[in-house]
Each structure stands twice: as structure tokens, then as C-alpha cells.
Amino acid sequence: MSSRTIPYLIALALLTGLSPAAAYPADSTATAQLADSSAAAPSAEPAKEQVKETSEPKSEAKDSATASKSDSKEAAKAKKAAKKTKIKAAAGGKGTVKSVDTAAKPGTMPVKPDVMPQHVQVQHILIGFSGSVQGKAITRSKEEAKTLAYEVLERARKGENFDELVRKYTDDSPPGIYGMSGTGVAPAAGEYSRDGMVAAFGNVGFSISPGNIGIADYDATASPFGWHIIKRLK
Length: 234
What we know:
alpha+beta; Chitinase A, domain 3; globular
């Protein structure tokens, strides 16, 4: 552009109301600045990423709530199952605590005495089998006798009247009550020495606490008459 042209353009700008600067054509520097300004404009993409990141914690919170609900259900199931299996019951004062079936009446399961007693009184139900008790016409087999013995034991522990069970099932003479003295202890009036009874009978009688009900399984030597369901009275 020549030096003569410049005054002409300024005059023209004044007549048309334009600023002198607007009369000049845009040079390369202005164009570059405009391009830089456009490049610096923030993009909409980061906003989208921020929205995505914000939504992820909500998903994690939902998963956490679902897991917590599942854990609560599992805990409830475990608690319910525990009630249906076994409970702990104590018998005979400070005797050993033993896990027992929930169907058993408290105090009927065998609990070892704190101190070995010198005298005990027990009541028993003898379940014999064919040929096991002299003078008794028992027809059941050994297997049938065992099955019956454990059925009666279960009923006794559930709280059925023991006297009635004795009268109905024993192959001994009702009421089936015996007093025993411990080994090396002189028998009191009406008592038998423990050593004078079949071994299993005395072993059970001295190893349980008052109110407990135990069983002496058939053994050709220790319990030759059959199965003894034994309740310690005192």
C-alpha cells in the first residue's frame, strides 16, 4: 500500500463513521491471535466425563446397599439355624454344661457330677430281648430291643412320666428303684454295693447328676440283660 493511499482511507473512514483502525485490513498477527483464542476455548467433553464420574459413586452405593441386605439375610438364616440345632443346658447346679437336643427337657441330659457321689438312688427301665432275662418270655430280637430302648429314652428325656414308662416297658419289676453305694463305701440300709450290680448299671448311675437320664447299652459282660434306661433320683 502506498503512502498516498493512507490519507485517502482515513478521510473516507471519517466520512462513513468507521474508526480508523477498522479501515485497515486484518493482518496475519490478528488472525493468529484469533486462532489462539479459539483453541483456548474450553471443550464440552470434560463436562461429560465429570458427569460420568459423579454417577459412578451412586452405582457403588447401590451395590454396597445390596451387599449389606444380602449379609443381613445370611445372618438371619444362620441365627435361625442355630436355634434349630442345639442349645446348652446345665443340670445339677454347677455341673458341666453340655450341648443337648432342643427336644430334650432341661436337666434330663447326662451331666457329670462335680464330685463323685458315695451314694446314689436310681430308677431304671430294662429293655431285654429273647433269652436275655431269665423267667421273662421276651420275644423281641436284639435289634428290636435296641430300637425300643432308644425310643423310650427319647420319650423320657422329652418329659414323659418316668413311672408310667417303667410300668409299661420294663422287663424288670416296677418301680425299678435301686440305691447303690460307691466302690469301697459301706451300703446303707436297702442299698446295694456298686460292685454287686452289673458294671454298666453302676457306671451310668454314678456318672450322671440328679434328674439326668442316661442309658447303659447292651454288653455281654458289662450289661448282659439288655439296655438300661437310668434316671438318677438322688
